[in-house]
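WARN retry 2 of 3 for item q-0093 after timeout on previous attempt; input resubmitted unchanged.
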Amino acid sequence: MKKSQPNIVLILADHVAFEGHYGNDRFPYKWPNLEKLAESGAWFENAYAVTPVCTPSRASLLTGKRPDKHGMRWNCEYPIPDNRKEFRDDEIIYAQAMASVGYDNYYYGKWHCGTKRGPKEYGLKGWSLPEYGNVYRSDEYKKYLKRIGEEQPKCLIEHHLMRPKLDGTTVLMDPDEPWDYMDGVGKLLGSSETQEQFFVANLATQALTKIAADKESSKPFSMVISLWGPHHPYYPSEEYADKINPADIPKYPSFDDDLTNKPLRYRIHRDLRCLHRAYERWADWKTWQTVLARCYAAGLQTDAAIGRVIETLKTTGLDKDTLIIVAADHGDAVASHGGGWDKYSTYTEEVGKVPLVMQWPNNIPTGVKVSSLVNLMDVTATMLDAAGVDTNNLHALKLDGENLVPFTQSKQTRDTMIVDHFGHSGDVSYQKIAYQDGWKYVSAYGDDDELYHLKNDPYEMKNLISDKTTHDIQHKMRDLIIDHLEERREERAEWHKPDFLERGIVFSSPEWPREETLQLFKLKVQQGYKT
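OK item q-0093 returned
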């Protein structure tokens, strides 16, 4: 072990209602443990998912690469053409690179980056489940219940988006599929210890305690603690649900958005996928107040689980030489733009923006707020750099992120960034999103584009794509995207060679399906109109 090698703990929340919800002037919703950690570390104010869906975002975090390299564009269980269900056989993830420089590596919780191969296949110790993972039916969860002397919990479903017959019913949290009650909100009845966040946190804290007690080992370790929450269904324990009064929650700023100046993909998601407009489900704000109250309470319980991990690091003394990172895989569209639910099919700030806090004694200044644009691939690069991995000697890594430590020390900034979106599931909508100097441009293949000035319009209510006064900025933002595509042309060719194909299926570039699309994009820039 090199003296400079820290332990690394990454706590990853799932699907967090953050941008527009967290710490706003309308409602005092904050995570106290996250705030406390930020006081002794750095808060990244403009952190984004590289793509706002679970599998591709997590795959980019595990590999440090954009989706055009690892090939996962949608959730791995979705039967969508050209979508990888597993990493390629030659793929290298962060843990393998860290093992090469002497690290013991652990992983607890949600994986969602494969249907057959999980953390153990990549040399990680710990516990997880394939695909999304059915926590409440897992053997490990049932062992946990027995250990703490609790029965299988029940939940009260107050509102269900797709199955109104479930409203007001109490069901056993032992579903055949993890998403049986996915589109619901309510309360988990009984002990808070039976909630899935505390289950995963318990596994992790037990492991950390054992690591700290092992005086014979001199090896550094990394641990990813991947929580399933606060992803819907929003069933926080009663203890946390009672912390938030639904009546106190003011109307979300874009809740009444009628989408008149928005592309078609907004309506596809809101009206066709969720169906609640067609069936007049959850049309009134009073119901949404309960939805958000349970969503926020689930966030507070997630924060409490994070707090348990951080407290264990402190009580064991591991925190003194540990890089602690708290992040989320993507955001949550809940209540936004006409009453959104789940991930939107377009890259709104609500689905893209994520919390990101880092603490590392003697390396990251305390109480720092970083305004630069960053993303989750930067987290991967930060971990590997801190571990002492020489990425130049690991050709297959080819990271797309940068070490974030210099950003916290005012040694580096970033004011331009491009991220991706491929649609939520079957509603495929290829998008490139460019950020620069407060502007945001969403380019879409097969649908209309969007342009927002986020400093003046943080909730993206006014699409400026038809505003003639934005002509120059539109060309500038399109040029950024075209340059990005051109720069990656050779990489796209390299990462989609025949030897990387699977079962004879050609994985076309997730950047754009065909090169002629790039030419159409150039035409948009040259002539200044949308195709």
